[in-house]
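Hey, can you fold this one?
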Amino acid sequence: MMRARMPQARCQAAASARIPVRLALSWRARLKGLLGTRASSEALLLAPCKSIHTFGMRYPIHVAFIDRRGVVVKSLASVKPGRMASCREAACVLELASREVGEWLRVGERIYLQCACEGASRKEES
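Sure. Predicted structure:
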């Protein structure tokens, strides 16, 4: 039995940059978010989501608010613990430990989600 891999996210401006993503789709998963976790190279996609907080966080995070079309509408780098942020236009939010990437997403960039196992099945069919 083949085990499914984590979905991958990549932005249009840096097509070669792929970030492993964990999905937080339930109310409970969105509420917990990155609380109680160690900084890692894995991002968290909260959906649906229009606001976040970093109360109780141990490390700063990068935050990208993304609209329904997958376009970054607000981007915040190195949001320190104990802060709040929101964006009315957002449909979801992508969070990542700030020390994990040098340059963060910019407003206007498009985010694509792709399951890591999709590429493998296409190669096998060839």
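The first strand starts at residue 7 and ends at 11. Let me know if you want another pass with a different chain boundary.
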